[in-house]
Hints:
Layout: H1 3-9, H2 30-41, H3 44-47, H4 49-57, H5 61-85, H6 91-99, H7 102-131, H8 140-155, H9 159-190, H10 203-206, H11 214-219, H12 222-229, H13 234-237, H14 245-254, H15 256-274, H16 286-294, H17 299-331, E1 341-342, H18 349-359, H19 361-368, H20 373-404, H21 420-438, H22 443-466, E2 481-482
Parallel strand pairs: 1-2
Helix pairs in contact: 2-9, 2-14, 5-12, 5-14, 5-15, 5-20, 5-21, 6-7, 6-20, 7-8, 7-17, 7-18, 7-19, 7-20, 7-22, 8-17, 8-18, 8-19, 9-15, 9-17, 16-17, 17-18, 20-21, 20-22, 21-22
Amino acid sequence: MTSAQVDNQHGVTDAEGSAPEEGYQRGLGNRQIQMIAIGGAIGTGLFLGAGKAISKAGPSIILAYAIVGLVIFFIMRALGELLMYRPVSGSFSEYAREFLGPFMGFVTGWTYWLFWVVTGITEVTAAATYVQYWTDGIPQWVAALVFTVALFGINLISVKLFGELEFWFSMVKVTAIIGMILIGLGVITLGFSDAGDTASFSLLWSDGGFFPKGIGGTLMTLQIVMFAFLAVELVGVTAGEATNPKKVLPKAINTVPWRIGLFYIGSLIIILSVVSWTAFTPNVSPFVAAFAKIGLPAGAGIVNFVVLTAALSSANSGMYSTGRMLRDLARNGQGPKIFTYLSKNGLPTRGTAVSVAMMLVGVWINYQWPGEAFNYVVSFATISGMWAWIVILLSQLRYRAKANRGELPQSEFKAPGAPYTSVFALAFIAMVIVMMGIDPDTRISLYAAPVWAAIMGIGYLAIKRRDPNVFANSGPADTTKKG
């Protein structure tokens, strides 16, 4: 089968990889896609979660981030190979449907939708918590409600406005990290500030060594590190609305190594050289601790503003992706037909509205249990997010095998080292899942997985009994309805 035949089969009709049958408007340019890719890799997992990881592993957390970062790069290159084969908005469930079967496509679409609903609840809850730093008189649930409604309004206007907001959210995070690195380098090399006398790169190994908690301590932080990278795959969901996906997406994916190197590894090296790892506590941001040690009184406020934007960025991305996942499911007969509707601006407003309604459950949780809300919803996000990575890797392996046999055209953006790198990434994810089962703090997420799998199985059988033809074809159906 030639490339032209495949493109025609799936509705891809131009050189840029447009998919007009999806009905979306390609309003995301290179600048916005690049920042969405960067923002997806920088979130509260770094600004807040790194503190817990450091307290558990010491300086060796740098190695953990480097190894996981390499695995993430393998995953993103596998996704890139699939995106250049067929750039579509519902990428994960579309590829699962085509290469792994209709049931896997069904499970992946709904699981990724649930992932972002849960993540949206988590991040809105976190954002409401951060606001308490400045205005503790405002109830947490009120702040959560305001943020949810405001972001929903933005997602109803245009995809370009969504991209612009993500651009500036990401710019805040990038600027903060680069500023921290430059200030930290100045403290280490020039010796100014309150931390100047003790700051040194030797802090990376002088207090108990590079592995003060042993190799086992480092391994037990891998699930924390993996959580920090969740949503990096969001760039794949933008494929249906990128102005030139076959040019823009490879550029965004290829920046993953230097993004991880600078924003994660670089910032951690500097922070752990300014402040000894023994000074960090699990519930305090390492950035706040570093600013405090340097003696910048505004440091805590700056970091709080940055993590607020990181949380809002993630919630904004959740609203964007959930509507598109519901529409992809509906277009393939695996969700209510009402979700196929697109607004005049090419937005899946009904799917987004229902998803936001689910996120409003988070407002109720904030009202009922303001002190425990974040912990109630965060555990399931990790395992459901990693499911998308597993599906990407399995789909890429199946696609590569078919392409090598001449059944499908070769991708213009092959993953280097595949299939070996993809197999390694799958094995690594499996090891992390085992670690999650061992750690009592994360074990709860594995309890929810079988329940969700049972729900998916029942839903699949119910839909198949109602209409056996729904799962007969792997290609997307054109049921677009514009208003």
